[in-house]
Design a protein that fits this description.
Elements (H helix, E strand, L loop, with lengths): L3 E7 L19 H8 L2 E3 L2 E2 L5 H10 L3 H4 L14 H7 L3 E5 L15 E3 L12 H18 L3 E6 L11 H6 L26 H31 L5 E7 L14 H4 L3 E4 L8 E3 L4 E2 L3 H8 L14 H4 L9 E8 L5 E9 L2 E6 L16 H9 L4 H12 L3 E5 L16 H17 L5 H30 L1
Parallel strand pairs: 1-6, 1-7, 2-9, 3-10, 4-5, 4-6
Antiparallel strand pairs: 2-8, 7-8, 11-12, 12-13, 13-14
Helix pairs in contact: 5-7, 7-11
Length: 468
Amino acid sequence: MAVNVLLLLADDMNYNTIGCFGCPMDDISPNLDHLASEGICFDNAHVSIAVCQPSRQSMLTGLYPHHNGALGFEPIREDVTTLPEVLRENGYYNGIIGKTKHCAPEHKFAWDYFKNTQNAQNCYGRSPYIYGRDAAEFFANAKAEGKPFFLMANSHDPHRPFAGSEDELTKFFGFHTYASRYYTPEEAWVPGFLPDIPDVRKELAQYYSSCHRCDETIGEVLKALEESGMADDTLVIFMSDNGMAFPFSKANCYLNSTKTPFIARWRGHISPGSRNHEDYIAGIDYTATVLEAVGLADALPGDGRSYLPLLMGEKQDGRDMVFTQFNTTAMNKSYPMRCIQSKQFGYIFNAWADGETYYKNESMSGLSFRAMQAAGEEDQEIAERVRFLNYRCREEFYDFSKDPDALHNLIDDTQQERIEEFRNLLESFMRESGDPVLPAYEAYAAQRKEKQNQSDGKMKGEETHEII
């Protein structure tokens, strides 16, 4: 029996926003929690780049952005082969629902079924019912064709504008979309990387309302799959394309940027209710994993590596670190960042940070950032967070095991040997992958070493002077 594949993607959902990944919000994700009970969760899953289009295109090509030609919101190169192209060549019926413009150019993704939901007719991708209806139509078509299927179902939730927000009125021509549940600011759980102030809570409540609706969307697609009679032969994987659209999350290289809730279900193959606490997997690995699962392991070489053995509960070497990156915002502003992290530590290189360049992304146009700016006029700690977000520094180093929200940059800490180890790991990876940011990293490393040599020489001179 051929293997069907269903990829479920949330849009801008943080890794710890759903119940089975620790979110304390009441009834936030019953459908995803149920999916988790039937499959496996990964606690160290990451996307390779924390912004919508590049993240999705890396997943479906198995290539880093600098290899598929799309550092930001560009189409991939014509000579790049995609996962759907390989699947169609091997008899698959391919479909996409939602976020269609983020797989570009369209013809390179070989869709047989194509539903754009970013319009008023389809409630701007915010209707669980419409996703269930379209998924049912897709599954019926695949069955009628007598073909195995690959479906990429992309919720537009919880991407901005959030449910019930004033931004909806602007973006959706004076209308609010409907959500079955609206959380209140008092109910909102405030993640540690954000200050607990009223407008942050207000915006988080709107975000959680959108997340609950995303869960309902996933539930409707899974219900349609069950009713199709093909669920038992389908590998289902759920992820988010990047972290939440708040300051210090999406469009960066922190845990809250690239870490994703990850659930996989494949009845008869994956042990129900299992969990992987140790191994690192990445969005770049998705294509290789799917191809191995459907029996086409050697069909498309790429940068990723199949994690199929891990889904089955087997061991796999070389899964103790992950490399992530960021390049360009949706506003076409370039802020090159590179990160390498292990279970305990993370090192980030901000090639753009020169003390003068001002960082800005879409998250900073919302209630939370404006509230942080206003609160910073009286609260020095919040003011420092705002300043750091805006200008950053060239290097960051965190002990994520103690500081998952990256509040304490340890780059000037005493553990310089550990920091140097991670610097070298990042440089080696950038060199091996042909990363275009490597020259900037090498130039900065040379400057840093020169300053260190000068400092060491000055200290030595002072010691000599004292002896004389």
